[in-house]
Amino acid sequence: MKVWIKYLLGIALGIVASFLLPFDNIKVKEAFVFLTDLFIRIGRYIVVPLIFSTAICAINKLRSSKMLLKISGWTFAVIILSTLLLTILGLVSILIVKLPRIPITVDVPSEITQINIKQMILSLFPSSGFQAVNEGSFLLVCLVMAFIIGWESSSNEILFKPVFALADSCSKLFSDIAVFFTEIMSVFCVAIMAYWFVQFREIIEPGIYTPMILMFVCDFVIVAGIFYPLILRFLCHDPHPYRVLFASIAPAVLAFISGDSNLIIPLNMRHGGESLGIRRRCRGFTYPLFSIFARGGSALVTTISFVLIWRSYSSLSLPVSDILWIFGISFGLSFLLGGFPSGGAFILLTILCTQYAKGFETSFLLLQPASLIICSFASLFDAITAMFGSYIVAVKTKLIEHHSITHFI
């Protein structure tokens, strides 16, 4: 059975379970909260070993073949441009379509959690590189260490041949283990989706956040169904750009219900290799970088959310200077969310509200009940961007062997 079918089947069973199981019972709900957290942790288990070993091999081969500069240029260009595109789309869509106001709540937290931007930057570089092994959120630390080892091991291939051989064997080993993990995640999706859907029903029941959700859906259709395929068609001259969207079904589904950008990396890399034919030296380099830096989905949903909050508080038109400020902050700070694999979109929204001041310091509370949906759509956009972006880089650097769609996993 195809992987994407397994994941969609898990989603369907999870939705059914959300109606059949007594989630009104506190113990049942607590059990599913525990299972959801447990299964996501299990899914993250293989991420750091897989990235570390595969990135060493990728950097070694890219430097030896003098491809490192070219692939780096294409990767960061796609990351920046995709983030720019998504931020602009989010801003334009919310400025054109005026969503209904969110009723103002009077609840004010006793203490506002202060989020330090400097601390966000430092979180990408913890005090010890060994924390990359202890905490799966610090993927940049893992990638930097792999870069150093891969770079140096290619400087003297004879002397450091055992180092590359060990990394190569570990990469293949962890890739095989990742296959097992990605398969069982389709089963875990039943429990994750069941609890997610229960929360989703509670969010949409009042109807307050439904227009915002519909805007997210429309923007996703525009991005995944129109913008990205058109870019592939004209930039890569791909006659069948929707093949990439087809290969993205399982990663997109997992990203949406988990809201975790790190969790989907093994599944992304597996589909990139087995379905799209992206070579290991490319996917071992691009997918981690997209997970860390390509958080345009967070910028898009944050932009929409903040303007919606602003309009809920004021009937005046938004000044041009404020529009540019919202755009600049959302776009710029999205690159610093690498230390927050989940919940990054709402963290960014909180920063916008507190930095904007003018009485908006606690205004993020208006959308706090819908934080699950906000973060889910942010992860969905980011997962699709990683798949399309890595494919573009692979095509432009000729590190791909195209597979027939019948051979997709």
Described by strand count, sense and barrel closure, the largest sheet is: none
Radius of gyration, Cα only, in angstroms? 21 Å
Helix content: over 70%
Structural class: mainly alpha
Mean pLDDT: 88
End-to-end gap:
8 Å
User: How are helices and strands ordered from N to C?
Assistant: HHHHHHHHHHHHHHHHH
How many H/I helical runs?
17
Uncertain residue ranges: none
The shape is globular
Percentage of residues in strands: under 5%
In total, the number of strands is 0
Brief descriptors of the model:
409 residues, globular
Description:
The chain is mostly helical and 409 residues long. Helix content is 71%, strand content 0%. The chain is built from 17 helices and no strands. The protein is globular, with a radius of gyration of 21 Å.
Blueprint of the fold:
Blueprint: H1 3-20, H2 26-44, H3 47-64, H4 68-96, H5 117-123, H6 131-134, H7 139-153, H8 161-204, H9 210-235, H10 242-247, H11 249-258, H12 265-274, H13 280-293, H14 296-313, H15 320-333, H16 344-356, H17 371-396
Helix pairs in contact: 1-8, 1-11, 2-8, 3-7, 3-8, 3-13, 4-13, 4-14, 4-15, 4-17, 9-17, 11-17, 12-13, 13-17, 14-15, 14-16, 14-17
Task: Tell me briefly what this model is.
The protein is built from 17 helices and no strands.
